[in-house]
Amino acid sequence: MDIIEESLFSKAEARLNQLKKLPALKKDRSITKALKEHGISRRDFMKWAGAMTAMLSLPASFAPLTARAAEVADRLPVIWLHMAECTGCSESLLRSDGPGIDSLIFDYISLEYHETLMAASGYQAEQNLEDAIEKYKGRYVLMVEGGVPTALEGQYLTIGAHGMTGLESARKASENAAAIFAIGTCSSFGGIQAANPNPTASKPLSAVTNKPVINVPGCPPSEKNIVGNVLHFILFGTLPSVDAFNRPKWAYGLRIHDLCERRGHFDAGEFVQTFGDEGAKNGYCLYKVGCKGPYTFNNCSKLRFNSHTSWPIQAGHGCIGCSEPNFWDTMGPFEEPMANRLFNTPMFGGADKTADNIGIALLGAAAIGMAAHAVLSNIKKDKEQ
Amino acid sequence: MTKRIIVDPITRIEGHLRIEVIVDENNIIQEAYSSSTLWRGLEVIVKNRDPRDVGFMVQRICGVCTYSHYKAGITAVEDALGIEVPFNAQMVRALMNVSLVLHDHLVHFYHLHGLDWCDITSALKADPKKASELAFKYSKNPIATGADELKAVQERVKKFASGKQGLGPFANAYWGHGTYKFTPEQNLIVLSHYLKALEIQRVAAQLMAIFGAKQPHPQSLSVGGVTCVMDILDPSRLGDWLTKYKEVADFVNRAYYADVVMAAEMYKNEPSVLKGCGVKNFISYEEIPVNKSEFLYSTGIVRNGDISKLLPLEEDLITEEATHSWYKEDKPLHPYDGETEPNYTGFVDADTIGPDGKPIHTKALQLDGKYSWIKSPRYNGEPMEVGPLAAIVVGLAAKNPRITKIATQFLEDTGLPVEALFTTLGRTAARVLECKLSADYGIEAFNSLVENLKTGDQATCAPYKIDNNKEYKGRYIGNVPRGMLSHWIRIKNGVVQNYQCVVPSTWNAGPKDSKEQMGPYEASLVGTKIQDLTQPLEIIRTIHSFDPCIACSVHVMDTKGHELGEYKIDPIAIGCNI
User: Fold this and answer.
1) Full-prediction pTM beyond 0.90?
2) CB contact under 8 A, B569 and A89
3) Contact by Cβ (8 Å): B49, B42
4) The complex's ipTM?
5) How does it assemble (chain A) (predicted)?
6) CA B428 → CA B110, B240, B401, B435, B538, distances in Å?
7) Which end of chain B is more exposed for a tag (fewer CB within 10 A), N or C?
């Protein structure tokens, strides 16, 4: 181990030891026991921990710590709030895959409030939220799905008999959270309701609270990205390192394009010209029918969706850039390449910069020019031209 | 002396919903008000955009019925442009639709609605052995109900419930309520299926992802067809679809259907679930092609619950109005001409019944004014119920052979008369029948696809051109898991000129109209007796039987180019939110 790695390791270890001393929220429910009950062997569990470690871009030597992190995960109460949204992020979480291990993790994070899943309604539901905020002050993880409407003083969304606005509710829950995750593009960047002309003045969670917010964008994000972040928090006791848009680097550090299964065709200049043509049948690159993979930072090309079943590019449709800020306004039309209009269109994200180098300040001609150059030079090679 | 109760939030639904009711001295509901408390604005957001992008944007109306709006948005554009979609693409779309129905109804029954019927705390008292034997009464070949398995489920939940943390997401519900009718053994069976269904729904989601890329929010439909040509031509993918389809269909037949038959037996004397539908008009539309000429669902209208007569559906008679909705325009308008500007009047201060049964000061709906973000769709001026119950009722009236067979079998298995369909129980039952329809006959679409591929036809996407000098209008009408859905589009100068969605939950959850006619939610509640005003399980159960999808039903507007400035409260936020 090098020095940085060593210091990370000891930091994580210290954090875990500290967590271990905390009283369990659920006395009789350790992960070890739970695994046994579900017929999952220690060996399978360690294999999973190894995979999760790799996913978090940590060295393999961290795997035992990942396993230990999962074992203490039941000490984290979670509050999940719904703002202006479509519930797709909650649904994505329900699809947690594999031998059910991440759904177990989810289970063993004590879910205190989640409107789609909780049994209580009305006053009883509100009571659950208030109790959790009070009881686990400073210790709960807050996950927020959806954009926050701010026009009309937030009244485009109210919840409960007292007509509390979503804005008030999100702020209140943020006050005493140990960590805050904006789940999905709506909560991270405003999402679809914030697309032009944004009639409800919907904002990302980070714009309505002064607490630090980790963005986990995607429409929806994969459940692995959500679980991975929680583990990071447990491991290090800090929020994961993030890029210019507050996205964890471990998940959003690479472009879709970097690990794309059709990348070879891009490099060879083999493109689908129209959906359903010979190139489409042969799995050629989708850039010319609008793929935004070169401008989009996410791990879809590595992890795919629904237990690795597929992902948009495998299903023959280009990436629409759903984990990028304002993608509804900047990435469309979704079935046309960016290069055609790159020089006169403001664009977030650049094709040849790493995620952490991209900032609002860098959205000028340089990054765009480089992206355009890369793209155009490849198109010139296009065999069909 | 009347009392007023508020239930907000209604949980285990999609979106944000508030119900208010007024009960008399016998706790019988006299008046009911359904209100959505969130407004997002998608219809206005898609304006002036490339018509090819619309499907992707309107899909984000809902992440639960995730495929419904996607297909509707794409199909509306295809209708406007006069595109004929290749047969392969039609069948793949049908397979994705089948996957959605299976997924959506399973999740609804077990994870969203199930806890209204099943008291999990009672399951802890069950005898697993007896429960295991009992399961054979409802299914010849029950699933996840072996005595050992049930015992393990019971112990798992017992540990969970007795831990320091308590019931977690199951906390503080109406457990022990007098209208729960299952025996402890029956509760244990449903609880075991609840857990098993968590696994099965993952498989159902993968089923859609095989051709759809992902679920929620699949991404393989494009105007003109589908893009997943490699998956279609890959026999291993086809085999994967078939295997997963069989696994999910198996669960529908051996668990879901059996559990609803069991519920029908145990709840058939519970007045709160047998009170008739308040609105007895039903409207449904053909959907899910299984070959070149047949669909699983039929088109038409049934009025006043009279299934001996099928009335034709005339699209021109569909209107929406906003008398009691937070919009300015009050006159009923056809969706092609819909116009609306927000006019939020908010809540009023009122004394209502609090969580302890005593009066409490709250915010409440302005009953004689505007009180919801949902509009009121009407057909020929009348409210209509849409959804699985409508699909079954219209299918019976249309003498649809597949629907008739499944519905007749259900009535035989439960001994219920056909009138029992027109209730909360019937609405829940209709959902399993619709799901069974996909489980039993969805395979026909798969076979049609394979047969067509054998002929050498590999077309998946039709070419088309959008002429910027031409004006187009088109619509999608169909039947999605929550009922009849329609999207209406006008295209001008190559961009979207206006867009309107008339969605299932709008039909069902809308407020009163100008003639003070109630919509299905409200009408279904009136007359229900509430046992305990602090635990209004009867309201929750009836509302859940509609499977509310509230983000879907909320409108946004301005289809006639009105200034949007009025509700651009915070101009800094517009366009850039970082």
Assistant:
1) no
2) no
3) no
4) 0.94
5) Heterodimer of a large and a small subunit.
6) 11, 30, 21, 11, 14
7) N
